[in-house]
C-alpha cells in the first residue's frame, strides 16, 4: 500500500490511470464512493476525491501544507513536476530538500497510507451505506399491491434518513470551516445551533427507520456517520432528539429548548472548544469565569 501511494507522487493529483496502482481502486472507501464501482474511471475519480479530502484533513498540522504540495495540491500549482513540488514541500516543512526527501517524505507517505486504510476500515464497518441514485427518464409508478407499498415506504424512509444525515454533516462541516476561518463568534454559534437541529433531526429519522425496518442497526452508529459531535449524556441526547422530532423548523427546535442548558453549555461549548483555546476570554465569552451558561444563546432568538 505504501508503494502504491508513493507511485502517485510521480504525476501528483489528479489521479490518472497511468499512475494508479489497482490495489488502491479496490479499497472499500473508494468502491463505496464510486458512482459506478464496476467502472474504472468512476473508481479513479472516487480515489482522487478521497485523497483530496484526506490531504485537506492531514493529521499532522506542521506538515499538512508540505504533504499537499508534494501531491500537487495548493500551495503547489498545476503543472509542477515532482522535483519542483518536492522543493516547495521541503520549504513549507522547513527542511533542506535532501533531508526532506530522505527523512520526511517517507513519513508523509506512510501517514497518508494509514489514513487511506483507516478510511477503508470505517466503510468496512459502516452499519449502512448510502444508496446510489441513477437518472430516471420515465415515471415509475408504485403498483397497488401491499408488497410494493412496503418496498416503496422503506425506500422513502431510507431516503429521509440519508437526507437528514447528510444535512447534519453539512452543518457540522460548516461549523468546523467557520472556526478555521475564525469567523465572527455569533456566526459560529448560529451555525452550531443549526448543526444541533440537523443532528437531532437525523437521530429522530434514524429511530424511525430502525424501528420500522432495521431493528438490528444501532442508532448511534447511524448518526455518527454525520460526523463528530460533542459528547452528550443519554438524557441530553434524548432531549435534543425530542425537540427535533416531527420535522420541526429550526425556530421551533430552539423554542423547545429555551431556558435549558444542553444546547448552550454542552453542544455549543463543545463545538467552540477549538476556538476558545486560542482566543482571549472576556466576561461575555465561554471560559471567562462565572456562570457555566456564558455561551450566548442562539443569536436568532431574543431573550
Automatic annotation (TrEMBL):
This is DUF222 domain-containing protein. It comes from the Bacteria. Residues 274-303 are annotated as: Disordered. Residues 275-284 have a biased composition (Polar residues).
Amino acid at each position: 500500500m505504501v508503494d502504491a501511494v508513493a507511485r502517485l507522487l510521480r504525476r501528483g493529483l489528479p489521479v490518472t490511470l497511468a499512475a494508479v496502482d489497482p490495489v488502491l481502486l479496490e479499497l472499500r472507501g473508494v468502491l463505496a464512493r464510486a458512482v459506478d464501482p464496476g467502472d474504472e474511471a468512476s473508481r479513479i475519480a472516487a480515489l482522487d476525491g478521497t485523497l483530496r479530502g484526506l490531504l485537506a484533513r492531514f493529521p499532522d498540522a506542521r506538515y499538512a501544507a508540505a504533504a499537499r504540495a508534494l501531491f500537487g495540491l495548493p500551495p503547489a500549482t498545476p503543472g509542477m513536476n515532482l522535483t519542483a513540488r518536492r522543493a516547495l514541500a521541503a520549504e513549507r516543512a522547513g527542511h533542506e530538500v535532501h533531508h526532506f526527501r530522505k527523512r520526511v517524505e517517507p513519513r508523509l507517505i506512510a501517514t497518508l497510507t494509514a489514513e487511506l486504510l483507516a478510511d477503508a476500515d470505517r466503510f468496512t464497518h459502516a452499519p449502512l451505506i448510502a444508496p446510489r441514485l441513477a437518472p430516471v427518464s420515465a415515471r415509475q409508478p408504485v403498483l397497488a399491491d401491499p408488497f410494493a407499498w412496503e418496498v416503496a415506504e422503506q425506500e422513502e424512509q431510507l431516503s429521509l434518513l440519508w437526507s437528514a444525515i447528510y444535512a447534519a454533516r453539512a452543518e457540522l462541516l460548516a461549523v468546523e470551516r467557520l472556526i478555521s476561518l475564525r469567523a465572527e463568534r455569533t456566526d459560529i454559534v448560529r451555525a452550531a445551533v443549526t448543526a444541533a437541529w440537523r443532528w437531532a433531526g437525523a437521530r429522530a429519522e434514524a429511530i424511525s427507520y430502525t424501528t420500522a425496518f432495521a431493528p438490528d442497526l444501532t442508532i448511534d452508529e447511524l448518526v455518527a456517520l454525520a460526523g463528530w459531535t460533542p459528547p452528550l449524556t443519554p438524557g441530553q441526547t434524548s432531549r435534543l432528539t425530542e425537540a427535533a422530532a416531527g420535522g420541526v423548523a429550526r425556530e421551533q427546535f430552539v423554542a423547545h429548548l429555551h431556558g435549558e442548558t444542553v444546547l448552550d453549555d454542552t453542544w455549543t461549548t463543545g463545538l467552540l472548544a477549538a476556538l476558545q483555546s486560542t482566543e482571549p476570554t472576556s466576561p461575555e465569552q465561554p471560559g471567562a469565569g462565572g456562570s457555566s451558561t456564558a455561551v450566548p444563546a442562539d443569536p436568532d432568538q431574543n431573550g
